[in-house]
Amino acid sequence: MVLAGLALLLAYVALSFVNDDRGTLSTDVGGKTATLRVMEATGSWTPQVGYWATQWDPTAADHGLYYTTVIDGHAVNVTSLPVMVLAEPFFRVAGYRGALIWSMVGAVACAFAARALAARAGADERRAWLAFVVVGVASPVLLYALDLWEHAPGLALMAWGVVAAVDAAAGRSRWLGLASGLAFGAAFSMRTEAAVYGFVAVGLACLLLWRRRGLVAALVVGVLGAVGFVAMFLANSALEVALLGGSLRAGRSSGAASGGGSELAIRAKEAVATTAGLFPSTEPGMLALGLLAVALLALAVWRASGTGDRAIARIAFGGAVALFLLRAVDGLGFVPGLVATAPFAVVGALLVWRAGVERAGRDAVVMALVALPLVWIFQYSGGAVPQWGGRYVLTSMLVLTAVGVGVSGLIDKWLQVGLVALSAAVAVFGLAWMSHRTHEIGRAATTVAAIDVPVVSAQDFWLRELGAVYDADTPWLSVAGQSRVPDAAAIVAQSGSPAFDLLWIPSEPDQAPPEVPGWYSGGEDRTETWLGVDFRLTRYLQQKDG
Question: Is the C or the N end of the chain the one with fewer CB within 10 Å?
Answer without folding.
Answer: C
